[in-house]
Amino acid sequence: MQYQVIRNAKKNIVWGFVNKVIVLLCPFISSTVIRYCLGVDYLGLDGLFTSVISVLSLAELGLSSAVVSHLYKPVAEGNVTLVNSILNFYRKAYRFIGVIMLAVGLCLIPVLPHLIRDSYPDEITLWKVYLVFLFNAVVSYFMYAYMTALIVVYQREDIKSTINSAVTILMTAAKLFLVLVTRNYYLYILMMPVFTIVSNLWTAVFVKKVYPQYSCAGELPAELVGSLKKLVTGTFIQRACALTRNSLDSICVSFYLGLAMTARYNNYFLVSAGVISFVQIVSNAFTGGVGNHVATKSPDENFREFQKLDFIYLWLGGWCTVCLFCLYQPFMKLWMGEDMLLDGVSVGLFCLYFFLLMLGDIRTLYSSAKGLWWEQKWRSLTETMLNCTLNILLGYLMGIRGIILATIISLFLCNCLWSTEIVFKQYLGIEKIFIHFRHQAFYFLVTLGAVAITYIICMQIKTDSAIAQLMVRAVICCLVPNLFYLLVYSRLDIFRDSLRLIKDRTKG
To answer: Which of 160, 386, 390, 413 has its CA 20 to 30 A from that of 73?
Structure first.
């Protein structure tokens, strides 16, 4: 079956962006209503159980990507029998994962009270709330979640985005209506599994209507099983590392500091995660070109392009870092209230954490394009173990600052240094690694200067209104750091080369 690549890609981008806005905006609205209708502890409870379920969900990581990558060829060749056998394997694997996840999740019930320092709301029973979160996470594995693989393969992610957007809006509306009218937290969280079921059924109806030739039948060839196992293992380890960063942090915050501090931490993380999502729209736009050039050009040619892409991306990432540092506190004060603010040092650490993530995004594109998941396995495992160990140690010694610092240390050592060494050794050329580190150190220092100058200017302007303060600072953050970057970078060759790259990519 043929499908329109360019037309579908445009629809995917448009609907993907719309879905991104909706998926980011709805949690903001939900958190605001929970904060003011039920209280901070309920907000912290949401964050804690979401983190626990995220850790339990690690079993699935890597499977969906591996299955999709093995579906492209038989779909393109019209090999319906092989597609059906892969789908059948996918469905069985999902059901097995669901059983394991449910069993492990139930075993954690006795541990739950020990994850919360001090107390939790008297009106709720902890294990009942947890079971709703667990059921919401498990139910998809026993329904039709595996069918989304066909939507991805046929490049109809606009449909996936549309369904997700509609379900998110309806679920948020139902949750907010119930909590505003009844003030009942149980009814609020019960909407999650209800709309998860709706989403799965909606997806199944679409897939069966548009692609009726496919069904779960047959056994997967032995050679494909071996290929899937290796690919799943490599992608699982890397994705597990990324997912557990915030989940482990939230659990440690709850354990050491209680639900109220967990709510504060997750509010700040929610903002930075939202910014990361939009910045990564840029890196995602580079993905296809990077993959093509890795396949068709030499490592030297790709290194030169890598430098330009990294410069462009870190200009954007550096600007976002400035905005976060200067706007975090006035935004939080306006959104959640002054009693929900973290201290200035913690905010600075959050911003450093954000920028360190930005440092690795373009390098990750080249690592993925070259298929270095297996080569990254020990690095990813070490980062997770180091982050967990430092969270426990520094969280005990320093509280919230120590937990954020633990993530920064593990991210810097294992992601910024070790992962870079792997990519350069395996592909770009180890002799070029010090050029890359020197450039990134320079971009970091320039960003540090932009943060300092912009913040000093922001502090000089006093306003009586929190809204006015946020708006004035936003204007300053748009102008000052970008003018500073322009002043510092405009004489560099990399600036002119990057401008040419942008012009070439945007022609026509």
So the answer is: 160
One-letter identity of residue 257: L
Residues composing the chain: 508
Q: Is residue 225 situated within a structural domain? A: no
* CA-wise closest residue to 147 among 137, 133, 131, 159: 159
Is the same domain home to 281 and 344?
yes
Determine the Cα–Cα distance for residues 310 and 424; give it in Å rounded to an integer: 14
Q: Which residue has the tokens 């000089």?
A: 460
Q: Report the alpha-carbon distance of residue 254 to residue 240 in Å, rounded.
A: 21
Q: What is the pLDDT of residues 162-204, one digit of tens each?
A: 888 888 899 989 998 998 888 888 898 899 899 989 988 888 8
Q: What is residue 424's DSSP assignment?
A: I
Co-location of 338 and 236 in the same domain: yes
Q: What range does the domain containing 53 cover? A: 1-220
The token duo for 447 is 């960003």
Instruction: Quote the pTM value.
Output: 0.79
pLDDT band for position 212 (50/70/90)?
Answer: confident
The CA–CA distances, whole Å, from 87 to 101, 125, 214, 497 equal 21, 39, 8, 46
CB 10 within 8 A of CB 225: no
User: Residue 122 phi/psi, 5° resolution?
Assistant: -65, -25
Residue 32 lies in a domain: yes
The residues, any chain, with a CB within 8 Å of residue 163's CB and separated by 6 or more, are: 199, 202, 203, 206
d(CA 294, CA 201): 39
Residue at a domain's end among 191, 220, 249: 220
CB 332 within 8 A of CB 466: no
Contact call for residues 327 and 470 (beta carbons, < 8 A): yes
Residues 68 and 177 reside in one and the same domain: yes
In angstroms, the CA 385 to CA 364 distance is: 20
pLDDT in tens, 386-408: 988 999 999 999 999 999 999 99
User: What is the enclosing helix (H) or strand (E) of 156?
Assistant: none
**CB-based contacts of 257: which residues, under 8 Å, 6+ apart?**
117, 399, 400
Instruction: Report phi then psi at 119, rounded to 5.
Output: -130, 175
266 and 185 in a single domain? The answer is no
